[in-house]
């Protein structure tokens, strides 16, 4: 039976850019070390937060190679591999070099708006082609289609190498239905920082986090407390970050977390079009809350 390695605090790693818009590989590697030093359980590269659609094939390959070499097996690595062209994804899964990658995060096809049967057949093809475990990614706010609990459970029961789902539907009832009826080898991972605490109380095994880019030590503590059943102390941390959760997404992701990392002196506040930096008012609020929290980094 294939085991899910992606539990606890995972980080949806941002892609830092230099002031002229190039990938800042030095800052990226510093960020990787910062995450590992502060106790994250796994890293996710080439996801939405990485601005992957705006990276060239060469940049993606370089990021993958550098991160794999720097991590050197210290934590599991999950890599985004998804899209709305099933044949192209199957080709990538069969022909790319997956050395050092422990699993793929595959998003629901976007723009096409497939039916539930279309989603099933798409992920069936992904599962049959993938040489590494598969984590499904349901994020209807971005893709335009929600994969319902029945489809998720059908895939989980039929394919042992589909080990988890990153659920970002915002539908707690749907997520609870999956947790309640899932096979033993399959897990639910939160795809939303703000509902990670309540989702863990229902049986989720962790989160693929945005805020963790900036505050891995604090957020990993909340996740671990919640997973141990210490809900009172976990809830205290959850409430402490409630305002930051909102600010990170008010101007879009990853604009908020890049503003936070910039305020912490870790990266340039640079994104690639069509994304733009967060508004000055949001930036000021983020900086103010960081000072209030008095977090050492």
How would you portray this structure in words?
The chain has helices spanning about 25-35, 55-70, 85-95, 115-130, 140-145, 150-160, 170-180, 195-200, 215-225, 230-240, 240-250, 255-265, 280-295, and strands at about 10, 40-45, 75-80, 105, 135-140, 160-165, 185-190, 205-210. The protein has about 300 residues and is α/β, with parallel strands linked by helices. An eight-stranded parallel β-sheet has the order 7-6-5-4-3-2-1-8. The protein is globular and about 50 Å long. The relative contact order is 0.14. The model has no long low-confidence stretch (mean pLDDT about 95).
In short:
By secondary structure, this protein is an alpha/beta fold.
Q: What keyword list fits this structure?
A:
single chain; 297 residues; TIM Barrel; eight-stranded parallel sheet; 8 strands
Topology:
Blueprint: E1 8-12, H1 25-37, E2 42-45, H2 57-71, E3 77-80, H3 86-95, E4 103-107, H4 116-129, E5 134-138, H5 140-143, H6 149-158, E6 162-167, H7 172-181, E7 187-190, H8 196-202, E8 206-209, H9 216-227, H10 231-240, H11 242-250, H12 255-263, H13 280-293
Parallel strand pairs: 1-2, 1-8, 2-3, 3-4, 4-5, 5-6, 6-7
Helix pairs in contact: 1-2, 3-4, 4-6, 6-7, 8-9, 9-10, 11-12, 11-13, 12-13
Outline the low-pLDDT stretches: none
Total count of helical runs of at least 4 residues: 13
- N→C terminal distance: 40 Å
Q: Which strand order do you get reading across the main beta sheet?
A: 7-6-5-4-3-2-1-8
Class by helix and strand content?
A: alpha/beta
Mean pLDDT equals: 96
Secondary structure tally: strands: 8
Helix fraction, binned, reads 40-55%
Oligomer: single chain
Q: Write down the domain tally.
A: 1
The CATH topology comes to TIM Barrel
Largest sheet: 8 strands, parallel
**What is the H/E order?**
EHEHEHEHEHHEHEHEHHHHH
């Amino acid at each position: 039976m294939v085991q899910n390695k992606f539990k606890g605090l995972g980080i949806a790693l941002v892609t830092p850019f230099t002031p002229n818009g190039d990938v800042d590989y030095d800052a990226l590697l510093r960020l990787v070390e910062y995450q590992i030093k502060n106790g994250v359980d796994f890293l996710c590269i080439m996801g939405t937060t990485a601005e992957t659609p705006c990276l060239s094939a060469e940049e993606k390959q370089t990021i993958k190679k550098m991160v794999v070499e720097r991590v050197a097996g210290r934590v599991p690595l999950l890599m985004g591999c998804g899209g709305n062209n099933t044949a192209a994804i199957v080709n990538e899964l069969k022909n790319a070099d997956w050395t050092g990658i422990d699993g793929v995060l595959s998003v629901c096809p976007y723009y096409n708006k497939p039916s539930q049967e279309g989603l099933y057949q798409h992920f069936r093809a992904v599962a049959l082609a993938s040489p590494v475990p598969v984590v499904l990614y349901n994020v209807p706010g971005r893709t335009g289609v929600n994969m319902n609990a029945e489809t998720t459970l059908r895939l989980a029961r039929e394919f042992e190498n589909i080990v988890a789902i990153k659920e970002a539907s915002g539908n707690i009832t749907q997520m609870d239905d999956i947790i309640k009826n899932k096979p033993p080898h399959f897990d639910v991972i939160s795809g939303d920082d703000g509902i990670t605490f309540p989702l863990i109380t229902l049986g989720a095994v962790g989160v693929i986090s945005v805020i963790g880019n900036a505050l891995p030590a604090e957020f990993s503590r909340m996740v671990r407390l919640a997973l141990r059943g210490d809900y009172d102390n976990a809830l205290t941390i959850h409430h402490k970050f409630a305002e930051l959760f909102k600010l990170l997404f008010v101007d879009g992701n990853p604009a908020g977390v890049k503003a936070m990392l910039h305020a912490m002196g870790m990266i340039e506040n640079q994104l690639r079009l069509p994304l733009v930096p967060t508004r000055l008012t949001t930036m000021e609020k983020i900086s103010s809350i960081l000072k209030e929290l008095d977090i050492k980094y």
